[in-house]
Amino acid sequence: MVTLQGTSVYLRALEPEDLDFVYQIENDESIWEISSTQTPYSRFLIRQYLEQAQQDIYQAKQLRLAICKTATEDAIGLIDLFDFDPLHKRAGVGILIQKEEHHEQGFGSEALGLLINYAFTHLHLHQLYANISTDNQPSLALFAKFGFEKVGVKKQWIFARGTYHDEALFQLIQTT
Length: 176
What we know:
By secondary structure, this protein is of the alpha+beta class. The protein is about 30% helix and about 35% strand. Helix 1 packs across helix 3.
């Protein structure tokens, strides 16, 4: 699993043991605006999701991986390819590092680099895209670091915290 192995993190498929971790993330109301969620998920639904998460990306049209610290093997976040389109060779990218203590440590950056490499070299994608709230400065900086370019802004796209927020669309197109 060299492709998904970095210096500080590695990416792995979700396991049944990740139930509590995924449950906590999916039911954290503070991040619902990122995932467009408005209702809580039961452990039963998360368990069903984890059972189906082992489907091939060509079947499920998405791939969710746990971001794990190499030193402890603890999952600290999730990274996704979603809206996978094999015909047009593109997919959306989403990333979340769960706890504040793991923010600004380089884990998200390393995980995104690993996923980009995997998407272009193993899945042979032509492009990746990300939808990012224009007030999410850490995510804007992270995706810009990897060459994602802002190609548009969806005005007043997200209603959160009692007001509307713009969301930017970023693309990374493989040039080789």
